[in-house]
Design goal:
- The complex is a heterotetramer of chains A (999), B (199), C (416) and D (91).
- With 999 residues, chain A is α+β, with helices and mostly antiparallel strands.
- Helices cover 22% and strands 27% of the residues of chain A.
- In chain A, strands 8, 9, 12, 13, 14, 15 and 28 form a 7-stranded mixed beta sheet that branches.
- In chain A, α8 (360-368) links the parallel β19 and β20.
- In chain A, α6 (307-317) runs parallel beside α7 (334-343) and α11 crosses α13.
- The longest helix of chain C has 17 residues, at 125-141.
- Chain C has a domain at 115-179 and 255-342: D-Amino Acid Oxidase, subunit A, domain 2 (D-Amino Acid Oxidase, Chain A, domain 2).
- In chain C, strands 5-6-4-14-15-16-13-17 form an 8-stranded mixed beta sheet.
- Chain C is globular, with a radius of gyration of 21 Å.
- Chain D has one domain (3-82): Folate-binding fold, CATH 3.30.2270.
- In chain D, the strands form 2 sheets. A 4-stranded antiparallel beta sheet of chain D has the order 3-4-5-6, with no helix packed on it. A two-stranded antiparallel sheet of chain D has the order 1-2.
- Chain D is globular and about 45 Å long.
- Classes of the chains: A alpha+beta (999), B alpha+beta (199), C alpha/beta (416), D mainly beta (91).
- Chains in contact: A-B, A-C, A-D, B-D, C-D.
- β31 of chain A pairs antiparallel with β17 (331-342) of chain C, so a sheet runs across the interface.
- Bound molecules: flavin-adenine dinucleotide, nicotinamide-adenine-dinucleotide, flavin mononucleotide (FMN) and zinc ion (ZN).
Chain lengths: 999, 199, 416, 91
Amino acid sequence: MAQPFRTAEGGRIDRSRSLAFTFDGREMRGHPGDTLASALLANGNRLVGRSFKYHRPRGLLAAGGEEPNGLVRLRRGGRAEPNVRATLAELYDGLTAESQNRWPSLNFDLGAVTGLATPLFPAGFYYKTFMWPPAWWPAYEGVIRRMAGLGRAPAAADPDRYDHRHDHCDVLVVGGGPAGLAAAQWAARTGARVILADEGSEFGGSLLSGNESLDGKPAMAWAERILAELAAAGNVHLLPRTTVSGYYDHNYLGMLERVADHLAEPADNQPRQRLWKVRAGQVVLATGALERPLVFADNDRPGVMLASAAQSYVNRYGVRPGDRAVLVGNNDSAYPAALDLAAAGVRVAALVDLRPEAHLDWLARLDEQGIEVMAGRAVTGVEGRDGVRGVRIAKLSDDGKGIVGGVGREVECDLLCMSGGWTPSLHLFSQSGGKLLWDEGLASFRPGEAVQAVRVVGAAAGRFDLTACLAAGAEAGNAAANDSGHRRRGRGPRRPTAEEMPPPLAARPMFLIPGGRGKRFVDFQEDVTAADLQLAVREGYRSVEHVKRYTTAGMGTDQGRTTNVNALGVVAQELDVSVPEVGHTTFRPPFSPVTFGALAGRQVGELLDPLRRTPMHGWHQANGAVFEPVGQWLRPYYYPAPGEDMQAAVNREVKAARHSLAVMDATTLGKIDIQGPDAAEFLNRVYTNGWKALKVGSCRYGLMLGEEGMVMDDGVTARLGEGHFHMTTTTGNAASVLAWLENWSQTEWPELRVYCNSCTEHWAVVSISGPNARKLMAELCDDVDLSPEAFPFMTWRQGTVAGLPARIFRVSFTGELSYEINVPAGCGLNLWQTVLAAGEKYGITPFGTEAMHVLRAEVGFIIVGQETDGTVTPLDLGMDWIVSRKKDFLGKRSLSRSDTARDDRPQLVGLLTEDPNLRVPEGAQLIPGSDPRPPVASQGHVTSSYESPNLGRTFAMGLLQGGGERHGEVVHVAFDGRAAPATVTAPRFFDPEGSRARG
Amino acid sequence: MAERRIRHSPLAHLHLAARVVVDPGDAGARMSERPPRAQLAVRGDSGDKAFVAAFKAGLGFSPPLAANTVVTHDGLAVFWLGPSEWLLVGEVPGEQLAAALADRHHALVDVSDSRIAIGLSGPRARDVLAKLCPLDLAAPALAPGRCAGTILARGHMLLHVLAEDSYDIHVHRSFADYAWRMLEDAALEYGVAVIDGGG
Amino acid sequence: MARYSIFALARNALRRHRDWPLAWRSPEPKAAYDAIIVGGGGHGLATAYYLAKRHGITNVAVLEKGWIGGGNTGRNTTIVRSNYLHDESAGIYDHALKLWEGLSQELNFNVMFSARGVINLAHDEHEARELRRRVFANQLAGVDAEWLTPLQLKEFCPILNVDPGMRYPVLGGALQRRAGTARHDAVAWGYARGADGRGVDIIQNCEVTGFDIRDGQVRGVRTTRGEIAAPKVGVVAAGHSSVLAEMAGLRLPIQSHPLQALVSEPVKPVMPTVVMSNAVHAYMSQSDKGELVIGAGIDSYNSYAQRGSLPVIEETIQAVVELFPITSRLKMMRQWAGIVDVCPDASPIIGLTPVEGLYFNCGWGTGGFKATPGSGHVFAHTIARDEPHAINAPFTLDRFHSGTLVAEHGAAAVAH
Amino acid sequence: MLLIDCPWCGPRDEVEFSCGGEAHIVRPPEPANLSDAEWGDYVFMRQNRKGVHYERWCHGHGCGRWFNVARDTVSHQVLAVYAMGEAPPEV
Ligand SMILES: Cc1cc2nc3c(=O)[nH]c(=O)nc-3n(C[C@H](O)[C@H](O)[C@H](O)COP(=O)(O)OP(=O)(O)OC[C@H]3O[C@@H](n4cnc5c(N)ncnc54)[C@H](O)[C@@H]3O)c2cc1C
Ligand SMILES: NC(=O)c1ccc[n+]([C@@H]2O[C@H](COP(=O)([O-])OP(=O)(O)OC[C@H]3O[C@@H](n4cnc5c(N)ncnc54)[C@H](O)[C@@H]3O)[C@@H](O)[C@H]2O)c1
Ligand SMILES: Cc1cc2nc3c(=O)[nH]c(=O)nc-3n(C[C@H](O)[C@H](O)[C@H](O)COP(=O)(O)O)c2cc1C
Ligand SMILES: [Zn+2]
């Protein structure tokens, strides 16, 4: 298949191989080395997309990452990716791409009718209309939403893998053009650890697209030599296809490596993309400069292109972007571009120089090629809708603000190349905190003083001659390495010399070209015209930030890379101030859009967050447990028998605990070993109750408060020795309680001799509960006297259980006779299985967290985080008995604040609904009356609500205003428009004396 | 009842033994589960000379006092975890230490079952680890023989550098499955071989 | 003030949009005003608007150190809802929501308030309990709220992942249908235009550097553009509240943290509502322009730099990809941060201070955008009458002494 | 991502630490003798400086030690790191 616009020779493509691809279903061919953009052009396909707002036909403006128009949907199915820059999409065999933002097709787009009504759609028009009638806004909004947006998101999940990678280096060089290569070479020669990253598929930067020479040879030959040297050096990491996307605090940079995007799909186990997170000692930014478009009427027609892009297409890709070209520029760049085009067989109809005088040296060279140069003139209009057919060239007035001598002449052409000057690429420098300074000569910003350890070199620093770029790169690379403590021994690499170029002639900054009637686009992607910017200013949106937000200039996927400076120029002109007075908007990461998948890395799906497993986890799984997430743990929620629903299973588990024997995996409880002569004093300060009198061998329940007086955690702590305690915490708070203890002991009470060590992970805990618990224990343990007198409630013993060394705690969260058996975690499964086997005769039943909750609620035990929510004091819980009056403790003073001491605060109560079968939802509200219609002031809420097979009815607990004094009163439980009467009771429903647990 | 410990590995459900190969071939990463070892947490003030002397006496050699260092002696590795914290792994002289430290403020906690170690080695071991850990693995601070408490993805690890391309990754037992999966996922790109973790 | 309408657009189109009036003037500051508002964010501008409109106090200046709306008003994820837990909070946020519902018409400026619903997901029993508690509390307070099952959620938001095998499965969610989003910048501009049209001077690039306080009474402010006198000064400076308080010799219980957000590239509509998740920490909506607007968490340290860090963004996107798997191949287009004024009980402070004539409105933290109209409305009342409106009476500074906190942590953990 | 120089372990990434807010707050020795206002100030009022901020960090994923940091809240530059109990340095 022919590629009509492919040059006969040249370029960095592999002509020996041909690749097939499709665009909007049309089959075409290209070569390895092509991008989708260059291959489309080679096939004569210029129309690549429709614009955001007006749906104007658009072609390629650029050849690199700054491309605003050529955004396509690449690949299909779960691999479909919207908004891909065709200029960065490397061609592979079988590539499929689709155009975007058009319906039904790219050539015939109904959306373009909005183009007819464009006068009604100036900047910010939507703020001024769609307000009437108010009820219609959702409909208006629906239309706006459908018109806006660019590509379509894929409909299926992404099959690819993404990787993350940390790295550290002495010198990170960003940009592998001549300046960056020189910097990397010089830095590497010192032995420093160097990373060189470039967005492109090949290193070389602008050298890939130009045809400069170094030491009399093609400059790329030099580049290849340096690359070979760097590749061979052990201390250099070369990262092509890697965009440095963000420059964060303390020289931390984010980079996106496109590992497999140039392939049809990643190889097995190969990530598609990799996010690098680099902490760099020193950074050298050699990010180059971007050519600016010129702002004239209809400057967005397909076939209008940056001069450097045209050069890139012919030189790098062997593609003629047109047959007959006109070039227009305000600086020297258009001249070499004209020569390169001519050399590639493009007929160059004219070169239009905005400057009053042409560049004489270049003029001579163009003359040789028979190219007409027209100075003091500008392109003021473009013919052709779907592609350039000709341009209008008129004479500029002396001040450049008008046209003189009529509308000018029309020149036929199908390609218009423009150069509006160069903008150093300073996004990363600005992100690093460095200030940008306006440079009048460049008509752009250049880097000011650095704030972090960063240097800017080459075109990014506003230096455009090759020799100077190389010198600056070398110097910066060397200095950066020195600053990171590495020095070269011996002489530096030889500095190449570039061929002599004609001396530059000052550019003529001109942000707005007069004449013509069509729209003058400043931001191609966001469809923002000069008139939009001017309107914003006229309406009072004068800050550059307001202009941006009102017009959306610079807010597209390219973040206005090619257009920001032009926009500032237009705004400055309208405000009649200088550009630096206007200032610039903030550069933010990322430099180029970064795939969500890459940001997420491998922490998706089951690796999203650690899933903590107890030693018995596998058993629970194998035995059909339904799990509930508690923090990072998964805990058995209940164990349904075949055919059982949750309620039936829970009832069965609850009954087993009350009537015979049940067993729970309590391993997830937090456990902290506390040792030291001052351990008891320490506990006295962190718990509300007293600890000094606790006997060795005994346990005590404790409550911890924050300094604001609210319950933070609870648990049982045992005294193992005079200065030795074993504290337990709730599952969810294990880490935060340890941190809390460390915080106080290290920072506030360093004089207390105490050490806290987490031993949560060391112990597996099997908790057996029920009237038969002692019998079972007796079978498993023969070295502890289990009699109630010898081993009473709230004590602990060291012993051997099932042949395992164990700490046995006689504590109970279920209100039944219970033993919490702690064994080294590696033996946990073993103990669990032994207990189950031995308990079989008692019908031992494993129970999950739900049954545990029912059991503890029946006997009125609270759960921190359920009965409490960070606003509840121990007094609110009716736990005055645990609040010491004698000593100070954390949070104590807060309890006597005027509000906290009020007696009508929400207080914990029991609730028995009139209907014994009604299980009210947790969270339901408590109201005095029976009418739940709003507005009703709530008096509290239900914290826990269960069905109890032991009580033969439902029951609940709740926090009720002044509830402590309201036992016996009937209140209403309000939810979902209902109000169910319920009697307020004490929050204890079963075994009020607590004799069962003590038994 | 006589003691009869049967220890289960927190990685048992992964059936690693069945995957063990003798020749890892060209796999970039080799992973193994290390056998369980006794572990003891030791607390005391490294600024207290008498404590340090007693600690040394209890060990029979000088404990590591510099940050992120390990002293290994006769089957016992002593890891510096912090200025008042060490982890002993291996032939732990528990009673000897308790006796030696009796007069100084200290804490000894048996944490033998708290952590397990995953071995990671092979030509790409460092690359694998660098995916999950923010430390500069090439820095002198992590030369062979050093250790560091740090991050492994969203978990915590005690990293022990055995050699240029060989690490022991000590993780808490409940995180072992997560750590293994994360490491293996990170290593897939380079090829993974499960090898024997030694006895 | 010329009215905005489709007819005005058509008329102006004929004149090539040359004659649109200024949305607001840019006057030089006068020597004295009846009242000064410090901070030209949404809350400050709304305060000025209601002072002029409801209280007839028009000799007012809004002093803004940068550009109006450039603080958190211009950088928030625009979630508007009123389903807070406590009656005090529901009171002020629902007051605001009612004002939102007619705000475009009131201001004659389309603020694009879009009642597309806001969903809060529950991923464990604890979250489900807390969310349902809120639903029930809201039902009593007259704030619309309903509970959706995973299947109903999927229907309401088809791209949501409700696979029971998720690491943190979705157990259900609370939906407030009247809630939604609004166009944040337009809120500042609409109030500015409305206030300016009633005589308020909006003075940008004017930083307050000190207060003139004599005999316990405020007399005016010092600014980078000179001294300006006023017997009443209302400070609405969000992340900078502590800095201004210190100038006035006051202490606030506020910490300033960066709160981050990001947008994806614009895509065609995929996200019909707003989804917020606490356990899998992220929240997401889609703007009318097409970007997915995603909120992250706060960075843990105090900061006045409006920039955040990469790890917070990574975690957020991990959550987003988990909740919305089809977003994996979309791309982050821009990330930024705002400085939020975090109060210990996650509720604002609105009212009088020990200095006579000096009022503070702050502590909105991560969730004050939604309150903008209501906050401005009651703050104007507070300034005009020198006493709080019933709606803001609970939000005193004194509550940190008495302990009468309005603890909205549960409702505010992902508080936007 | 801040780089924080742990006094023990050396420079480590911010994610290894937790930030504990303002440093040098002393718990009142006799809380019972304080007024509600004085106690409230101790519990809730915190410096929130724009500029140099003295704060506490804990190296939770490393040595577990708390220490003090002087940091600029605008530039995020870490100006000093010093031990618990030491007086804040002039920066
Ligand atoms: C990323 C992010 C996401 C958020 N998401 C939501 C959300 O989804 N929903 C929600 O309800 N809320 C959200 N919020 C919170 C919300 O943005 C704020 O609470 C709200 O906008 C505060 O408005 P404001 O007018 O008080 O403050 P701002 O808009 O910050 O205005 C304060 C103004 O005071 C000015 N100022 C400061 N100091 C001085 C001085 N000395 N002199 C003069 N002027 C001064 C500032 O320049 C600023 O313009 C979010 C915030 C952030 C940062
Ligand atoms: N005649 C002129 O007016 C003119 C103008 C501009 C440039 N030039 C020429 O261009 C050359 C400048 O060399 P240079 O090395 O400074 O720049 P360069 O343009 O050659 O190289 C810059 C490189 O940085 C890469 N890059 C940019 N941002 C990046 C990022 N965020 N992440 C990764 N990679 C990124 C680009 O892909 C590119 O390869 C000189 O040869 C000079 O003569 C001439
Ligand atoms: C709701 C919302 C939507 C946004 N959409 C875009 C967008 O489409 N394109 C863009 O570049 N920035 C967008 N931004 C980000 C702004 O450009 C800007 O980053 C943010 O307002 C913070 O300001 P700053 O970056 O100038 O400090 C959006 C911000 C918000 C709050
Ligand atoms: Zn440390």
